[in-house]
TrEMBL record:
InterPro entries: Transp_IS110-like_N, Transpos_IS110, Transposase_20. Residues 206-291 form the Transposase IS116/IS110/IS902 C-terminal domain. The keyword Coiled coil applies. One of its GO terms (molecular function) is DNA binding. Keywords: Coiled coil. GO terms for biological process: DNA transposition. The keyword Coiled coil applies. This is Transposase IS116/IS110/IS902 family protein. Residues 128-204 form a coiled coil. Residues 8-155 form the Transposase IS110-like N-terminal domain.
Amino acid sequence: MEKHFYFIGLDIAKETFVASIYHTPDRPVLTKENFSNNPQGYKELIVWLQDNQINTTNCHICLEATGVYSDGVAYYLSAQGYRVTVEPPLRVKRAFHPAGHKTDPVDSRQIAEYAYRFSDRLIPWHPKEELLEKIRQLLSVREQFTKQKVALKNARDAYQRQKVQVELIQKAHQETLAQLEKQITRIDQELDRLMKENPDLSQKFHHLKSIPGFGLLLSAHLLVMTENFTSINDYQRLAAFVGIVPYQHQSGTSILKKARIRHYGPRACRKLLRLAAQSVATHNMTFRKYYLRKLAEGKAKALVLNNIANKLLKLACALIRDNSRYIKEYHSFHPMYVKGT
């Protein structure tokens, strides 16, 4: 590390953010509050850093992932040439004792100290490819519309049991449902169109869709989540990130719990994988045989379906790695046995 290297911690809120400069533990931390969370505030931050002899070559800026609130400053600083890292808030929180004050300046100083202590683990942040970002936004809005549609259907079904009904409410339910379904269809069409814009993305998309149980949504979620399989291409890492890996919990002779998944990670992708596992366990003969065999052995239904979800994800990573489509009834053979024949 350079002799004069600084770590900047940003605590981002909706309207403002706080910045702190951390150099070494024996030197005081400089903190400034009330930067506006807009382009003007970003310019004021850079001026403040420059006043403290900090430039693009001698600092690393760290902030927590707060969704749309942190996107603006991350994009701006990255475009200006600064090294930026966006960390999960839970990871930063676990690095410090929970007792003590909880304010924006304190959080900013802790983020800066976190960057100093874990400087060897900081992964540079880079803006996502524009096409993948558009697909991510469409998937997010589609999920919102789907939840609204389900909630509205439940409200409509409940209202139909009322003894006294208002015709206007019935029409409002039907028209709103029809509009939501129309918008969801338009989003699906736009997703399909965007997938065809990039040849490499389109090829991987069709490889994934060839897998039993995989459709437009699950394939698109995997491509966005892995940034077209450039950030994560290893099956074990991907399964852990999605949250379908069972973890053991035992210690000595008194604590011996069953291995369980932790339900971390992207919920929408995990839900779609579970639905895909249920589909192939019902309609695909290969997975159906495995599913029934494991149930006959006394395995829990949820455990077997989670195993199938892991198998599907492993299959997806293998097809992307080999740049091939799924082949029904394909069997692999070890080269040693092939030579023996």
